[in-house]
Amino acid sequence: MDESFGTGCHLHLIDGSAFIFRAFHALPPLTRKSDGMPVGAVQGFCNMLLQYVGKDHGSDAPTHIAVIFDKGSHTFRNDMYDQYKANRDEMPEDLRPQIPLTRRATEAFNVACKEIAGYEADDIIATLAHQARDAGGRVTIVSSDKDLMQLVGDGVEMFDAMKNRRIDREAVEEKFGVPPERVVDVQALAGDSVDNVPGAPGIGVKTAALLINEFGTLEDLLDRAEEIKQPKRRQTLIEKREQIELSKRLVLLDANTPLDFTLDDLQLRDPDPEALLGFLSEMEFRSLSRRVAETLGAEAPVIPETAPEAADPDDAPEMPPFEEAVYETVTDAGGLKAWIDAAYRRGWVAVDTETTGLNEMACDLVGLSFAIEPGHAAYLPLAHRGEGDGGLFGDGDVTAGQMGIQEALDLLKPLLEDPAVMKIGQNMKYDAKVLGRYGIDIAPIDDTMLMSYAMNAGLHGHGMDTLSERYLGHTPIPIKEVIGTGKSQITFDKVPVDAATRYAAEDADITLRLWKTFKPQLHRAHVTRVYEGLERPLVPVLAAMERAGIAVDRDVLSRMSGAFAQKMAQLESEIHELAGESFNVGSPKQLGEILFDKMGIAGGKKGKTGAYATGADILEDLATEHDLPARVLDWRQVSKLKSTYTDALQEHINRDTGRVHTSYSIAGANTGRLASNDPNLQNIPVRSEEGRRIREAFVAEPGKVLVSLDYSQIELRILAHMAGIGELKQAFLEGQDIHALTASEMFNVPMEEMTSDVRRQAKAINFGVIYGISGFGLARNLRIPRAEAQGFIDRYFERFPGIKTYMDKTTAFAKEHKRVETLFGRVIHTPEIAAKGPRAGFAKRAAINAPIQGTAADIIRRAMIRMPAAIEALPATMLLQVHDELLFEVEEGAVDDLVGAARTVMENAADPVVKLDVPLVVEAGQGPNWAAAH
DNA sequence: GACATCACG
DNA sequence: GACGTACGTGATGTCC
Fold first, then answer.
1. Separation between the CA of A715 and the C1’ of B9 (whole angstroms)
2. How far, in Å, are A247, A731, A779, A796 from residue A740 at the CA level?
């Protein structure tokens, strides 16, 4: 048995990562009964390994075996091509905890388990296969990955364990149309959208095989490309030579991976029955344990039956009433360790952080609460203080009976970062940011707020109080009752520990109960993909952006504030002079009375509250005849810029970082858009020259620049795709001016004779369509008679009948299902669609707009989620999102690399889930400040 | 706290 | 035939 590897030996190489990924998607989801831990893929993996235990494979019997895993995501291929595998979606959260379990399973079966940092499993497999073949042995690669097919031949075969099918030379030839030796040549030409290997555009596997068979090898083909008869193909191969050669280097496996073991280390060994059966019973695999016990001649372990799942899946999970809940206060390391151990055993824990304030960037951690079972939760106070007003005499001392904050966090960090334990929270971005400032990178996470958002957007809010009342029938203790309100409000660290425990532990308890309620509903609502692909993975990305913040030049803002104050005072005195009396220009009520009563200007219209309307559109109409409204418009603009921007932004500069940190609400906008608050950095002025100067105060650090990338016309492109408008799609494919084209089609004006005014009108119509156009709205926007506007709309629908069809289909769908969906499956509920009266009009237009706006929101979310991996190696940081724009701060020398990488991610963000008929185009700008970058 | 106004996509 | 109306947000100031 201890001879070294050679003739007569048979090595089985199992592609572990690929197997578990396929098993996860192919097998029905299975969870461990006792605690709900997902284990379906682990079971499939163990079933596969079982064949290697004590069985006689005859002449095919393996003598050596190893399971090969990927290690880390960055490999030498990323150094060659930064976009390699950049399109990969995040690993599903239910698969993540199964990866370490798979490694443990391999060890339990006493099978060698190998991985090498910087190399893919495929490279290790290639290296071992070559070594085994050269030593005269046989090799079976357990995988169906086409990237491994280049290794087949000369005693190397593949085996598709899911389909129970051998893959030999003939099977490879059948798939690729060339023998295994030439597979890389075909792959280099055809490219691969999954791994993001570019290949030659327009050439697929069929054409590639044809070319390789004609010319012999890829190198001969490229050298003799001039001989290709088809002109387009010839041109592609000549022009894209470098890209094709890069593709070949990407797909070619490295058979010289440095290994820290030899083939002899992979000899097949019998498992230790105790270790293997112990693992299987821990996983609660009953039939598998029986079969293994039988094979090994051991006693089958007894796995206790736990309570079966509720018979009716619609039944709410059983939970004890809140009145019977038990909330503990954890005061020492022993108590905390008990909770940590319980969390490990369970595989999940609900967590909530309590802090001194709502600003995650400028507050201190006061305590943490935990829940593992409904009705049983704990609060861990860490920084509660005694009396002391926090003012002149400073804060009181930290009171006795609390663990040291550092000691507690040191104990908690491994748990909060353990990939096998799910951390459950309500608005986890908050907790992640706070804990991040204390050096804890909490993962993996589930978020009940985001679960509700994925299922219930449009129906109600997603705050904890709303959800608790709605889904648990329980009103949580109001925070006001704990910290008070108004002037006498205290910070949470001044709250007595017993009151804090009741409040904080209840929050964790509620969060856990909500999770138990929502988790099984996600699947039934068909939003698991949305939740796992578009909501949850955004949490760490946004947390990082918010923590990064953006530098704002206080002096620039301060100078502008001063100038604005002067201008306001000047305008104010002019206005008072014109009015003949002094009044508050900022009061629409007083202004209306001056304009329409005192001065007797015609056109005063009172709104529903009985006050005159004095909005900008009305004042603009008056401004043609009168000076006063014109001055008021100027005053309002300056006043807005000063109070909302130049004054307020200075208040938001963080003391510690010197930067401004916004906070994004993920579940704020019903359509899937983000919203920015405290401060809102998504509405910094840009449309007026005067306002745009405020963007000059948003600056890059010395040595760096700001880079802005924004999607061009993304909503119109989505409309062209969704409504299937051939002319519009064609125009986008050809890169034409879409508003000019619309104008040309509608008004029969040739493109060469287009005037800016006609184009402007067409642009307004295009936007109107996205908003659920109405004659009234368009008339008001263009300031034309309503009949004329209606005429435009009629002509538009005549010219693009597909748009009308799309709008009718969307409203019909909304009426039938009380919801609409984006291309990525995001659900937006439209309960108002059934309303009568004016509200029906609102609901209808919202229903038309939501799939378009929402799809655009989904696309940029996907780009943001993929961005960190794509720019990992660059000295660049993603700072802000403004709906169709991403703003980065990057070292001067790396601008081109960043633009290239970020643009690729953004333009391909819909792939591979949605294949758009129109290209997504991203425009880039850069400069020392945001005004220059935009 | 409601309302009007106005900044953005 | 009348009703009312562009879609989605957040911050500020006034006024009750």
1. 10
2. 40, 10, 20, 14
